[in-house]
Design a protein that fits this description.
Layout (H helix, E strand, L loop, with lengths): L13 E5 L2 H13 L4 E5 L13 E4 L4 H10 L2 E5 L2 H8 L11 E5 L5 E6 L6 H12 L2 E2 L4 H4 L15 E3 L2 H12 L4 E5 L17 E4 L12 E5 L6 H6 L4 E5 L7
Length: 254
């Protein structure tokens, strides 16, 4: 069985990219609050960043020539560039949501912050909300689980060190069932109970159980199972594309 493992590791490598006078001004504001972030800007605006502790890369050529190194060198890239321009710039460099960095776009006026790539797995949604808070802007989230304030199947428990274990098709199918409000069984046999981090209550379609054996499988469209137990191949087969398993750390810390 193929599986996808997601583990939150070191602090992300972050870069702020600005190519206009007003965009650079917004990047200066953000950089002051994020001293660990690097800055990539056109050489003509480099002076605006004088006095900041952030590492600065000022380029003389075209921004398109900087995209490859940015994708290779950073986990989160915040562009103070128009959304359409960023789409065209990054398109040749896209691989998959498991490999691409988080890409965030901020408008020239600093009013809106848009996670446009790798929102969940890449962390762009979370960073967009943080950037928006620092700039006094509005985050524009379009990921269904964020908009609907429900379980993000692909990254659930990541902040606790949980690994998600399932074929990718299962993650896709179960995510759709969750955001569509279909009945979901959530079985937690291990790990910390503090996995729900949103300020809103869980949706009513999520039903809790303490043991897999307590679930009447025919009543639920999908099953989320937090456990240390082995899952035999027969069970994966029986729950065809309906099961996602989460593995908390074995030491009991999370």
């Amino acid at each position: 069985m193929s599986s996808l493992s997601i583990v939150d590791t070191a602090a992300p490598r972050l870069c702020l990219v600005a190519i206009t006078k007003h965009g650079a001004a917004q990047a200066v504001r953000l950089a002051a609050d994020l001293p660990g972030a690097d800055i990539c800007t056109s050489a003509k605006f480099a002076a605006q960043f004088a006095g900041l502790p952030n590492a600065l890369h000022a380029y003389d050529g075209a921004l398109r020539d900087e995209i490859g190194p940015l994708f290779e060198g950073y986990d989160q890239i915040v562009f103070f560039v128009s959304l359409g321009a960023v789409v065209r710039l990054i398109a040749p460099h896209l691989r998959s949501k498991d490999e691409d960095p988080g890409v965030i776009v901020v408008d020239d006026a600093g009013q809106y912050v848009i996670p446009m790539l790798s929102g969940h797995v890449g962390g762009a949604n979370e960073w967009s909300e943080r950037v928006a808070d620092l700039l006094g802007a509005a985050p524009v989230l379009t990921t269904a689980s964020d908009v609907g304030r429900t379980i993000p199947v692909d990254i659930l428990g990541r902040h606790l060190g949980w690994r998600v274990e399932a074929p990718k098709i299962n993650i896709t199918r179960v995510s759709a069932h969750v955001v569509n409000g279909e009945p979901i069984a959530f079985v937690q046999e291990a790990g910390s109970p503090d996995w729900w981090t949103r300020p809103t209550p869980l949706p009513d379609n999520i039903h809790f159980f303490k043991s897999f054996d307590d679930v009447l499988l025919e009543r639920y469209t999908a099953l989320l199972w937090v456990t240390h137990a082995e899952v035999p191949q027969e069970r994966w087969n029986a729950l065809h594309e309906r099961l996602v398993v989460y593995r908390p750390p074995q030491d009991g810390a999370a």
